[in-house]
Amino acid sequence: MTEPHTAIVLGGGGVLGAVEVGMLRALLEAGVRADLILGTSVGALNGALVAADPGPGVIDRLLALWESAAAGKEVYGDGAVRQVTRAMRTGTHLHSAKPLRERLQQELDDRTFDDLRIPFQCCAASIERAAEHWFTSGRVVDAVVASAAVPGLLRPAVVDGEHYLDGGIVNSIPVGRAVECGATRIFVLQVGRIDRPLRPPRKPWEVARVSFEIARRHRFNREMAELPDHVTAHVMPTGGGSPKDDSLLAYRDFSAVLRRIDTAYAASVAYLDEHLT
Fold first, then answer.
1. Does 69 have pLDDT greater than 80?
2. d(CA 49, CA 183)
3. Residue 196's pLDDT is what?
4. Is residue 16 a contact partner of residue 191, using CB atoms and an 8 Å limit?
């Protein structure tokens, strides 16, 4: 019997991406080995580390990264005055991408995609081409920063003269890309938003979030419905979320990071015990 071509797909979701660490731990402990890793936004960050170091030790590295972020709010650590000053000066974003880039540089150094131990791709949204772009070559840090350039929070990333925004705009949970790349078994690591009820917006700042969620869920549900018969997809469970996860400032709330990781790990272990035995 032919071994399945296994892909791990890591979706976007900002601080909620911590759940993917728990899911990854469960997958590694269950002996799941990926032939391909695909990531978008925070999923690109988590996925790149696993592609570079797919052994059990990568979980400790991911935990250290997320604990560091939880303790010091590294990526979005600017104070209110600095945020307002930057927004007024640039007109486009609140935070500097420098802390994110420096942290990724510590983890990945100057690795290129060819240096990774597992084939890896990550998605970003090209501004000039108004198109989905998949990074498959070049420096991994540059690609991940582009994939995670959240509109309004971080400036558009520039790679080879082209400007990019967060990949979640065009492909938040890239199941279809895994199928295109030949995967026959897909483990979908999503942050839980697709499971929560979606209600009409009641405040101006909720309009963009609800609109984005409609687009995200529509594409994901369509791609899941269109999976070929020979492809099996496992949507990993988060173990549950909180209403606070969708608040306006949720992207800065790292207080529940470790709880999210542990909860997703326990739920994923139970899921894999049931579905892989």
1. no
2. 21
3. 80
4. yes
| E strands, the chain, in order | 6-10, 36-40, 120-126, 131-135, 157-159, 162-166, 185-189, 232-235
Instruction: Report, as an integer, the average pLDDT of 116-129.
Output: 97
Rounded Cα gap, residues 33 and 145, in angstroms = 26
Q: Which of 235, 237, 243 lies closest to 269 in space, CA to CA?
A: 237
3-state secondary structure of 158: strand
In 3D space, the residue among 36, 1, 44, 12 whose CA is nearest the CA of residue 217 turns out to be: 12
Helix, strand counts (H, E) of the chain = 9, 8
Please state, in angstroms and as integers, the Cα–Cα distance from residue 218 to each residue in 15, 43, 51, 143, 183, following that order: 22, 19, 28, 26, 22
Structure tokens at 197: 């009820």
Say whether pLDDT at 9 is over 90.
Answer: yes
> Rounded to an integer, what distance in angstroms lies between the CA atom of residue 187 and that of residue 148?
21
How do beta strands 232-235 and 36-40 pair? unpaired
Contact by Cβ (8 Å): 210, 161? no
Strands (E), 16-160: 36-40, 120-126, 131-135, 157-159
CA 217 to chain centre: 15
Q: Which of 138, 134, 112 is nearest to 125 (CA)?
A: 134
Comparing CA positions, the residue from 256, 240, 187 lying closest to residue 15 is: 256
Token readout for 237 is: 């469970």
By DSSP bridging, strand 157-159 and strand 162-166 are antiparallel
- Name the most confidently modeled range: 153-157, 174-178, 199-203, 243-247: 174-178
* 206-227 confidence digits (pLDDT tens): 888 888 889 889 999 999 999 9
pLDDT tens digits, residue range 39-68?
999 999 999 999 999 998 999 999 988 887
Give pTM, 2 decimals.
Answer: 0.86
